[in-house]
Amino acid sequence: MELSFILNHLGxxxxxxxxxxxxxxxxxxxxxxxxxxxxxxxxxxxFEEPFYTRGYNPTVATLRKKIAALEGSEDALVFASGSAAxxxxxxxxxxxxxxxxxxKKPYSWTNILLNQYLEKYGVKTTTVDGxxxxxFEDAILPTTKLIxxxxxxxxxxxxxxxxxxxKIAQKNNxxxxxxxxxxxxxxxxxxxxxxxxxxxxxxxxxGGHSDIVAGVLATSKSRIQKMFSEEFMTxxxxxxxxxxxxxxxxxxxxxxxxxxSSQSAAKVVAFLEKHPKVERVLYPFSDSNPQLAxxxxxxxxxxxxxxxxxxxxxxxxxxxxxDNLKLFLLACSWGGYESLLFPMCALHNSKSYDxxxxxxxxxxxxxxxxxxxxxxxxxxxxxxx
Length: 385
Description:
The protein is α/β, with parallel strands linked by helices and 385 residues long. It has helices at residues 3-8, 36-43, 58-71, 82-91, 108-117, 133-139, 162-171, 184-187, 221-235, 241-251, 254-272, 292-298, 315-323, 371-382; strands at residues 75-79, 99-103, 124-128, 144-150, 175-179, 197-201, 215-219, 278-282, 305-310, 329-330, 340-343, 361-365.
């Protein structure tokens, strides 16, 4: 299906809402019925017809169609956060006594879910270095039901060979989930590479305007129907109709925003790699990335997110760099219109720094500002280190 059609027209049955160009927000919790029989019939089809917004809402349904089409899946679900989408996906696969394999350094709440929270319910997780597919194969146990991927991750950008890992999982009847937030459906298509379930923090590029928190997952119709009646309806981590509408609006410019962010990031990376105050640049499409071949194999281009390790001896030097930037906002998240900065040194306030990531690592998100202006801002701040 053609991309611009998906973003601008798919699922928008304009004749059913007075031919309005933009879809309405069905800002209602409830839907009423003229007869008991009509209510009875709809209650048996809550997956696909409006009964109560916790289950089906027409605004959210339009968004589901677009997300599924973008990912090349049969269906999708939309959640109130990325962590809610991850939790629903994982919990739909594993039960007490099962074993999961997860790549190292995933999103922090994915890590907590798999390596702490689900342990209370008898689910064990093994964490592996995902750079070699054989590490996944070697970690498989008779009870392994899930392999969780994040390629690339959103701090240090390690990748996995998605197709190779998916083949290992299929051979062993193991479900696969991947967090595709960094690449978006535009730059990476995990389902085409054999992955079962794709999840996103939709607060990032899919929303794109730093005004919603949301999550999505895309997979087969049968998996979606099972999740809908179990994890989705039971746990209730739904998105509001208004936030779904904001996300629909954000999708209109997804291609333009992702391309602009990526192209600008490539220019910024080229500058940073030559700067003497930058020890190392971490970016999937950097020429110095040892996994560059994998990146080019399964990604269409890099995103706007990268990290640098600053050539500094004291935390104060990193702080000086960050505090002197004029255009980059000090904030978490990424994927919006604004350029952002997140320094690892913000996570500690003492000499006993307990974090697997180096204290002089700074994550940078390149937004939609002019890249040359951003480079000048980075230059003047680095010169103060």
